[in-house]
Amino acid sequence: MLNPTPRSFPHTGHIYDVAVIGAGLAGSELAYHLAQAGQDVLLVTQSLDSVGNLYHPSVDFAFPEGSFLQMALEKSLPDRSLWMFHRNVKQTLELTPGIHLLQSCVTSIQTGERFRLSTWEGPERLARKVVLAVGSFLEARLTMGSITEESGRLSEIAYDFLYQDLLQQGFAFEEVQQQSPATGEAIPYTVTFKVFAPAEQDGFHLKRIPELYALGRCLHGEHTYQSVVQDAHKLLEVLK
After folding, report:
1. Identity of the highest mean pLDDT range in 67-81, 181-195, 205-219
2. Nearest by Cα to 201 from 223, 221, 179
3. Domain range enclosing 104
4. How confident is the model at residue 95 (pLDDT cuts 50, 70, 90)?
């Protein structure tokens, strides 16, 4: 059983080893294994209710063997429902020593001796390294029928402020469109969002800023649920 006592007690001015922005599949997988490797990790999500969320109501596939997400999925048997999966991911992250799971919205990233993450709520968060695992949320626009909203998934708001901050820092982006098919009672919708242009990337490193990385769907290229988990393990080896 996991020890619920954290390695550190975050306070104003606390410096994390790594801040991971986004607690989807890639961010959650990375944060868990960084903490297991002894890192002090800040994992930021806009909503605790969306940790490990998917586009589908059930998880009808497997994650890579030995991954944190596969472990959470096996705990959600026999129904493999999205709600059970989300609950197991969130609970495990909250009980993992070395992870501070924070509900907040990062609006800008300032560089210097340490990264300074500004938030809607006001307090800055400090970290030595930062990973952007923001998925399909950089200036995302969700269209369902004749309605368009500033969302990366249903009822989940876009990272417009963070996108504008990165744009002002000189980063180049490309636009991507993704279709979510009808499943069960949910009707189909389309999400248009920004990804970092290939020229910005050196592997997972974003070349303009030392110790700034990106992971998952916010990077150029083809991605699946399984591939972003595999990429989390590749980036883990870089960050450890």
Report:
1. 205-219
2. 221
3. 15-133+199-239
4. very high
CATH number where 47 lies: 3.50.50.60
State how many domains the chain has.
1
pLDDT digits (tens, 9 = 90+) for 58-91: 677 889 999 999 999 999 888 878 889 999 999 9
Centre a 10 Å sphere on the Cβ of residue 114 and count the other Cβ atoms it contains. Answer: 16
pLDDT of 103 > 50? The answer is yes
Is residue 175 a part of any domain in this protein? Answer: no
Residue 141 CA: distances (Å) to CA of 7, 34, 82, 149, 174: 39, 32, 23, 6, 14
C-alpha neighbours within 13 Å on the C-beta side of residue 176: 20
**CA distances from residue 94 to 8, 102, 171 in whole angstroms, order as listed:** 13, 10, 33
